[in-house]
Specification:
Length: about 190
């Protein structure tokens, strides 16, 4: 891993622990000599992650759509910024520039980004580790829903392994570093 794509809220949420953990995640990533690819904003958890990486001397690559840049959400102090036209282009470029993915708390956009990366992994379109930093149990209902999908035959049990869930940053990064992609199944070939 060299660069981790971080998906998270453009707001800070209502718990100070969200911002604290986002900042710590950024700091830990920088301490390990890794960089972050993220949505390019200076606000919310996005800004906290970027500031954490920068405070640790790490590199931060932002990818921001033009319409959000115009709203003055762009982080002006990051290492590199890419301006794209659409949200789809943003995700595609973030995927191209990253070797792993971590989701922090966020809203619909964060979930959509996380699920697209999970789906691409399931379809063997990439073999990157995908992690959730489950701050204060924020993602517990999502994990329960995944179990329900498996229970009801909509998700193979083996796909449970493509999502790494941890409450501790060090444990999450360690497990992601040791991640072994699923073997090819009869439908898809991992590239």
């Amino acid at each position: 891993m060299k660069y981790i794509a971080v998906f998270c809220g453009s707001s800070s949420g209502n718990s100070p622990e969200f911002v604290k953990q986002a900042t710590l995640l950024g700091e830990k990533i920088a301490q390990k000599g890794l960089g972050v690819v993220y949505g390019g904003a200076h606000v919310g958890l996005m800004g906290a992650v970027a500031d954490g990486v920068l405070s640790g001397g790490g590199k931060v690559i932002g990818v921001i759509p033009e319409f959000l840049k115009k709203k003055e959400l762009e982080h002006k102090n990051i290492s590199e910024i890419h301006v794209v036209e659409t949200m789809h282009e943003r995700k595609a470029l973030m995927n191209k520039l990253s070797d792993a993915v971590i989701a922090l708390p966020g809203g619909y956009g964060t979930l959509e980004e996380l699920y697209e990366m999970l789906t691409w992994s399931q379809l063997a379109l990439h073999k990157k580790p995908i992690g959730i930093l489950n701050v204060d149990g924020y993602y517990d209902p999502l994990i329960e829903m995944s179990e329900k999908m498996i229970e009801n035959g909509f998700l193979k049990d083996e796909y449970r392994k493509i999502l790494i869930v941890e409450k501790n940053i060090e444990n999450l990064l360690d497990k992601m570093n040791k991640y072994v992609p699923l073997k090819n199944d009869k439908w898809f070939e991992v590239k």
